Request: fold
Amino acid sequence: MSVLVTGLVLFLAVHSLRIVAPGFRTQMMASNGERAWLLTYTGISIAGLMLIVWGYGLARMAPTLVYAPPVSMRHLALVLLLPVFPLLIAAYVPSRVRMAVGHPMLLATVLWGIAHLMANGTLADVALFGGFAVWAAIDWISAANRPGSGKVRQPVGWTGDAVAVLGGLAIYGVFVAGLHQWLIGVSPF
Reply:
């Protein structure tokens, strides 16, 4: 668990700088340059992500059960996960979805975390999925209150929405059909 927690602390801490120290990023870019900031930020993020993946794998070898969700929650989790990929895509394309949500990637992360908590109940699951869900909810609130937040350009037509929804549902289908099993080693069914 210590490797997983270390990874979560690194990854979520660097991604929380705008929440706890809004001017830090700007200060660092001004004093060291944008490239140096991006390299540092990326390096810490990758190290954290690698520790999360490694630590979660280690924790799964000797799981500590916190709660045992009923099988029906797995089905509900699959439904809750339906909008996750469309929201992730909507974060990068001009769309009405992005305008309505403001920060679709953060909402996707909250839904992803909650859905996985509904289907999994080990200590590693609570740390990983609960940690990300709580962080994303806090960041979503923080981002909504930042100056200039929510300024998304009006999309022209429905192309961005179609790309987000259809593309996201296609990716969801691929994940459910076997990619989740192949990548994570666990079938969603």
